[in-house]
Amino acid sequence: MKRFVYRKVLLATTVLFACALSGCSTFNAFEQRSDLGLRHRSHAPRGVNVVRGKPRPIVDGLGRVFGIPNRIALGDPRVDNHSISYETEQQVAQYLRDQQLDSVLVRANQYDPVGEWRRMVANKNIRPVWKLTMGNYNLLKYTLLPGRITGGDWYNPYSQTLNLYSDVAPLAVSSAAYAQDVQTRVNPGAYAALKEIPGVGLRHETTATKLAIDWYAQRYPDQLQSAEDVLYPNYSASWGGQIGAFLPYGEVIGRLAGGLAGRAANAVRK
After folding, report:
1. CA 211 to CA 156: how far, in whole Å?
2. Pairwise CA distance, residues 104 & 227, whole Å
3. Whole-number pLDDT of residue 91
4. Which residue pairs, CB below 8 angstroms and at least 24 apart, start in 93-96?
5. Which residues pair with 163 in a beta bridge?
6. Residues of the chain below pLDDT 70
7. Could you tell me which residues are beta bridge partners of residue 161?
8. What's the confidence (pLDDT) of residue 255?
9. What is the rounded distance in angstroms from the CA atom of residue 244 to the CA atom of residue 253?
10. pLDDT at 28
11. Are 36 and 53 in contact (CB under 8 A)?
12. How confident is the model at residue 23, as a pLDDT?
């Protein structure tokens, strides 16, 4: 009974926020119903769930336009290209399997708000107070600002979902490393909430980047250099973005400046 009431409260809260911000129309956004049936494990290692969104040329083309600043920042045309290869899928799935993160679902360029809500409600690792607050906040961002357009690989700890929009394995692995970091915490909900605070979230970025680099050094030492070539600029871009978040449009500009600085540091390091 309590579980039923809790689900109803979560749903009501989400719908009320969505209606207030979008006129009750956003939940019918493009592709939601089309992607609900696209659930397959593709070529991921056993025990890792990966689902792919159906190709949408117009939507994904718009997403590639939105991804131009991030591609410039990291200097890689595969960033936010909304076309994830099976090689990238395999590598991030291997990381999840190595860390025994079988509860994490990988969404490769997929949009599914209803599925995200269901996963958030079913997630027993996060306390209800964090689901009702930060969980719903992240769900609204996911719904109103679809990654199919805005891009940016990221892990949602409230639904235990890894969202991928770039065909860059190290970026995917870094997001998976954040999942590992969150799930080792005594209070993962509170820890994840701190990441939303500009400046404080840099600790999370530092840990995830280090975990990803260490994994490459052990599992794929021949790919370590190429991984560092994208992870260091991405880490620097995160610094710039969080510092710039205090200014209007500062996050985008800061991330661009930070990424370029990271690329320059990479060039000197070599």
Report:
1. 18
2. 22
3. 95
4. 93/44, 93/45, 93/48, 93/50, 94/45, 94/219, 95/173, 95/176, 95/177, 95/212, 95/215, 95/219, 96/48, 96/162, 96/176, 96/179
5. 107, 154
6. 1-47, 244-250, 269-270
7. 105, 156
8. 83
9. 7
10. 31
11. no
12. 34
Residue type, 73: A
> Using H for helix, E for strand and C for coil, what is the string for the chain?
CHHHHHHHHHHHHHHHHHHHHHCCCHHHCCCHHHHCCCCCCCCCCCCCEEEECCCCHHHHHHHHHHCHHHHHHHCCCCCCCCCCCHHHHHHHHHHHHHCCCCCCEEEECCCCHHHHHHHHHHCCCCCHHHHHHHHHHHHHHHHHCCHHHHCCCEEECCCCEEEECCCCHHHHHHHHHHHHHHHCCCCHHHHHHHCCCCCCHHHHHHHHHHHHHHHHHHHCHHHHHHHHHHHHHHHHHHHHHHHHCCCCCHHHHHHHHHHHHHHHHHHHHC
Among 49, 66, 157, 170, CA closest to 110: 49
Tell me the per-residue pLDDT of 111-166, one tens digit each, with 9 for 90 and over: 999 999 999 999 999 999 999 999 999 999 999 999 999 999 999 999 999 999 99
- Tell me if 170 sits within 8 A of 212, measured CB to CB: yes
10 Å Cβ neighbour count for 187?
A: 12
Residue 206 tokens read as 């530092």
Going from the C-alpha of 183 to that of each of 188, 210, 265, the distances in angstroms are: 6, 16, 32
Q: What amino acid occupies position 182?
A: V
Q: What is the largest CA-CA distance in the chain?
A: 61
